[in-house]
Design brief:
262 residues; alpha/beta; globular
């Protein structure tokens, strides 16, 4: 991609809602005293810092493909080391005891191969934990695909439909069991209650819409989001208490077999 599409301020607007799956994920990691912990796709680093708080004796590294995100992470008063790296090519220089990835792999078409490399990078008995959005058939994404395929936008965005880039829990169970891991997989649908005007549009502006914005001039972005806002308002009607926004996520926690285990 030609430029950094990630805007830390936009992404962090719903920080509490976005952090909840991270804590639900890492709560299932039962590593007692890891030596080396990695956060793959660490974003702005606040959640990486919580890993350092949980395992204060560990070396904790965070990496992300976005220089803007890593720039914000390095401003934290935190002990983890933060670097810019690509999840598809990153390789550690030592065995990893805990490798966490929060809402990253959905952006990586080859992520099943990446998962295999990550298992190889684990120390015997090491832990891999990741979660990915499972909402690609949700009304929000259907609205995006509908608009991209419309007459006005199809010449620019008609190829944008990525389908379902992630698997379901059973697929990841099969995949990681094939790597001789003990695997725990599950899914959760959170119902976030969003506030303000165009709340679902604001939510996806920090995630799903970023690659689309990368293709459009500023005036085109404004026109596209105006049209999308109408579709989203119809799909997610506001209540007196806010706008309910169901969001399905898929979770995977795997422990690599120790030496001598079959």
């Amino acid at each position: 991609m030609s430029r950094d599409i990630w805007d830390p301020a936009t992404y962090s607007r719903y920080a509490d809602e976005r952090s909840r799956p991270f804590f639900d994920l890492v709560s299932r990691v039962r590593a007692d005293d890891p030596d080396y912990v990695v956060d793959a796709g660490c974003g702005t680093g606040e959640l990486t810092a919580t890993l350092a708080n949980r395992w204060p004796k560990a070396t904790v590294d965070g990496f992300d493909g976005s220089p803007a995100m890593i720039g914000k992470a390095r401003e934290l008063d935190a002990t983890p080391r933060f670097t810019v790296a690509d999840v598809t090519t990153w390789r550690p220089d030592r065995p990893v005891d805990v490798l966490v990835s929060n809402a990253v792999l959905q952006w990586v078409p080859s992520h099943r191969d990446v998962i295999g490399h990550w298992v190889e990078a684990l120390a015997p008995g090491g832990w891999l934990a990741f979660q990915v959005p499972g909402n690609f058939d949700a009304p929000s994404h259907l609205a995006i695909r509908q608009l991209c395929a419309s007459k006005e936008w199809s010449d620019r965005l008609g190829d944008f439909d990525k389908g379902r880039p992630v698997g379901d829990p059973v697929e990841y169970l099969d995949l990681l069991s094939g790597h001789r891991c003990q695997v725990d997989t599950w899914e959760t649908t959170y119902v976030h209650v969003l506030q303000g005007d165009d709340p679902v549009l604001n939510w996806i502006s920090g995630t799903a819409l970023r690659p689309i914005f990368d293709r459009l001039a500023r005036d085109e972005q404004k026109r596209f989001t105006g049209q999308l806002a109408d579709l989203l308002a119809a799909a997610y009607p506001a209540r007196t208490y806010g706008t309910p926004f169901p969001f399905r996520r898929v979770f995977v926690v795997a422990r690599k077999g120790s030496e001598g285990e079959s």
